[in-house]
Amino acid sequence: MFRLTRILMTAALLAAGSGAAQAQVVISQVYGGGGNSGSTYTNDFIEIFNAGTTAQSLNGWSVQYASASGTSWQVTNLGNVLLQPGQYYLVQEAAGSGGTTPLPTPDTVGTIPMGGSSGKVLLANVTTAQTGACPSGAAILGLVGFGSANCPNPTGTLSGANAAIRKGGGCTDTGNPTSDFDVAAASPRNTATPAAPCSGPGVPAISVADVALAEGDAGLTPFIFTVQLSEPAPVGGVSFSYATANDTALAGTDYQSASGSGSIAETETSTTITVNVIANTNTEPNRQFLLNLTGINGAVPTSLTAHGIIQDDDIGTFNIHDIQGFGLTSPVAGQRVNTLSNIVTAVGPAGFFMQARDASIDTNPQTSEGIYVYTGSAPTVVVGDEVDLTGDVDEYFGTTELKAISNLTIVSTGNALPSPVMFDANTPSQDVNALSCVETNFECFEAMRVQIDNGIVARANPYFSTDNYAQIFVSASGTRSLRTPGTLYPLVPGVDNPDAGQFEGNPHIFELDADALGAVAPNTAITGGSRFTATGVVAYNFGDYEVWPTSFTVTEANPIPRAVSTGQPEELRIGSFNVLRLCDTLANTTFECGNGGEPDAAALTLKLSRLSDYVGNVLKLPDVLGVVEVENLGVLQMLSDKIATDFGVTYTSYLEEGNDGGGIDVGYLVRSDRISNVVITQFDKNEMWLDPRDNAMHELHDRPSLKLEGTFDGQSFATIIVHPKSRSCVDAPTGANCTQADVDRNRLKRFTQAQSIANRVQAEQMAQPTRPLFVIGDFNDYQFSDGFVNITGLIAGTYDNNKNVIDLPGANIVTPPLWDAVNSLPENEQYSFLYTEQFGAILGYTSASSFDQGRDVPIMQVLDHALLNGPAQNWFVEFEYGRADLDAADQDERNSTTAIGVSDHDGFVIRLNTTDRIFANGFDN
Question: Which candidate among 76, 127, 287, 769 keeps its CA 20 to 30 Å from the CA of 668?
Answer without folding.
Answer: 769
